[in-house]
Structures are given as structure tokens and as C-alpha cells.
Design a protein that fits this description.
This protein is of the alpha/beta class and 279 residues long. The chain is 41% helix and 20% strand. The protein has a 6-stranded parallel sheet with strand order 1-4-3-2-5-6, with helices on both faces. A hairpin with a 2-residue loop joins strand 8 and strand 9. Helix 7 packs across helix 8 and helix 9 runs antiparallel to helix 10. The mean pLDDT is 98. Bound molecules: adenosine monophosphate.
Length: 279
């Protein structure tokens, strides 16, 4: 497995691979890897000879200083997992490498998708996500970018960024990997106590309970019931929302179109997000 820390070294390697006719899959991560991340690497390996995984905790996408400072870092373990999975190349840039002197962050005109849910509760977050992925796409120039549906709104935002910046890359969205309890795998789960982790599985249960009743009960009522249930358990809910899968507009009464039910909630200091599809 190749490990590169600079844009120059990575580009040199990838230029050679491209000249040799190899196609490139790219999986951006912030490290503290789990099986969800590895499922993206495995999917990429099925379709590409060269699979680049980046590990970079991007400061510009954190709107909360403590969340950034406490973001788990497990580099040695991550590198072992990537090697075992068969990843061919790892990119470990520094902040200076990603945002060198003179780098001017573009503003991404993301429109509606940035004004709702994560965009509303984490102001500026998606601009940071776009900055870092835009830079990565410039450097890696992959044929395919692998993203997890766990971050459903992020998938939508990045689809828009790729269109705005005219990147020649295909996007591939992977299903969410879960613990046996149903809890969506997440690097932030490492910060949960055993009790908090057990309780956090209730997020997925509430999403499923909404899904089961979506044909019968108006969405407003389903949402307020779920928020009440989670609040009673000690969660601080930022939002639960039911939106159309394509345009992310809120749905008042389910119309049979593909929809997504999304949640963001704090358990203690840790903010968790999850979502499930309807249809
Ligand atoms: P992160 O390291 O959290 O920035 O995640 C890197 C990539 O892995 C993103 O595209 C995420 O959506 C994806 N990802 C995170 N958790 C999961 C999961 N449980 N299942 C599948 N993909 C995931």
C-alpha cells in the first residue's frame, strides 16, 4: 500500500497509474475508520485497480471547536485496516498541503439544499465539505467518488458541487452499515459510553417506526411523536424531517414517491445523524 503526504508525490504516482490505463476510485474520509468506511473501499476495489483513500480531519467543515478537537484519531489502526482491505493508496495531507498559502476558498452556490437540516444547524459546514472535496478532486482526479448515504444531505451537496465545478467524476452512493443494534456506524460512536451507545440504537428504531406508519399518519404527527419519545429518553433532537429523496422538499402526507426520513440528535455532547429511505 502506497502512503503519500504531499499533492506532488500523489499526483506523480496517479499520473503513472493513469498512463498505464488504470482507473481510479476515491474514498475521502476523516479517519477513525470502521466497517462503513471499509465497505466503500471494498466497493471501489471491485471497480477500480487503483483505490485512493484520504484521511484528513478537515478543519473548515467543523462549526464546533470542541467537536474538532475531540474528533477521534486512530491513524495506525486505520492504516492496518486499509492494508487488510486491499486499499492501494492512502493520502495523508496536512492542513497546509490542502490549503496552501494563497488558497482562496471559493463560495459554492448550493441553493436550497444548504439552507435546511444540517445546513441550518451547522452553518458553514457544507461550504467546508465542498472546499475539501473540491480540492481532493483536483488532486486525485478520480474516475469515481464513493460516498456513504449515512450522510444523505452531503451526497446531495456534493452532487451539486461536482456539477458547479464541472468535475469529470461519477458519484457512487453506498448504503449505511449498522451495528447489530441498528446504530449507524460512525467515527463519533467511539466517544459514546456503553450506556449511551445502547441508547443510541433508539434513533434507528424511531426512524423505522415513522416508516411503518407513514401511509397512515400525517408526517407532522409522526415527527412530533418521535421527537417526544427521543426527548424522554434524554436525547436533544436538532431535527427529524421527512423529505422527498430527489429534491429534499419536506413532505406533509406521503405521496408514494421515494422519501428519506432524517434525524440529528445529541446524546450527551455527541451529535449523531442517521436516515432511512422509504421505498
Ligand atoms: P467520514 O469519515 O465520517 O467523513 O466518512 C467518510 C465517508 O464514509 C463518507 O462518505 C460517509 O458517508 C461514509 N460513511 C460514514 N459512515 C458510514 C456508514 N455507517 N456506512 C456507510 N458509509 C459510511
Amino acid at each position: 500500500m502506497n502512503i503519500f503526504k504531499t499533492e506532488k508525490a500523489l499526483s506523480l504516482h496517479l499520473n503513472t497509474q493513469r498512463k498505464n490505463g488504470l482507473s481510479i476510485g476515491f474514498v475521502p474520509t476523516m479517519g477513525a475508520l470502521h466497517n462503513g468506511h471499509l465497505s466503500l473501499i471494498s466497493a471501489a476495489l471491485q471497480q477500480h485497480q487503483e483505490v485512493v483513500c484520504s484521511i484528513f480531519v478537515n478543519p473548515t467543515q467543523f462549526n464546533n471547536a470542541t467537536d474538532f478537537e475531540k474528533y477521534p484519531i486512530t491513524l495506525e489502526k486505520d492504516l492496518n485496516l486499509l492494508e487488510e482491505t486491499g486499499c492501494t493508496t492512502v493520502f495523508l495531507p496536512s492542513v497546509l498541503e490542502m490549503y496552501p498559502p494563497g488558497y482562496k476558498a471559493p463560495h459554492y452556490d448550493l441553493g436550497y439544499v444548504e439552507t435546511i437540516l444540517e445546513g441550518k444547524f451547522r452553518v458553514g459546514h457544507f461550504q467546508g465539505v465542498c472546499q475539501v472535496v473540491d480540492r481532493f478532486l483536483e488532486i486525485v482526479k478520480p474516475d469515481m467518488l464513493y460516498l456513504g448515504k449515512k450522510d444523505f444531505q452531503q451526497c446531495k451537496v456534493l452532487e451539486k458541487m461536482v456539477e458547479l465545478r464541472n468535475h469529470k467524476v461519477d458519484l457512487y452512493f453506498m448504503p449505511t452499515l449498522r451495528e447489530e443494534s441498528g446504530l449507524a456506524m460512525s467515527s463519533r460512536n467511539q466517544r459514546l459510553s456503553v450506556e449511551q451507545k445502547a441508547l443510541s440504537a433508539r434513533l434507528y428504531e424511531e426512524l423505522n417506526s415513522i416508516k411503518e406508519n407513514i401511509q397512515l399518519i400525517p408526517t407532522k404527527e409522526l415527527i412530533s411523536r418521535a421527537i417526544d419519545n427521543l426527548s424522554e429518553l434524554g436525547f436533544k433532537v436538532d431535527y427529524i424531517e421527512i423529505v422527498n429523496e430527489t429534491n429534499m422538499l419536506p413532505i406533509e402526507q406521503w405521496d408514494g414517491e421515494p422519501a428519506v426520513i432524517l434525524v440529528a440528535a445529541y446524546i450527551g455532547e455527541i451529535r449523531l445523524i442517521d436516515n432511512i429511505s422509504v421505498l
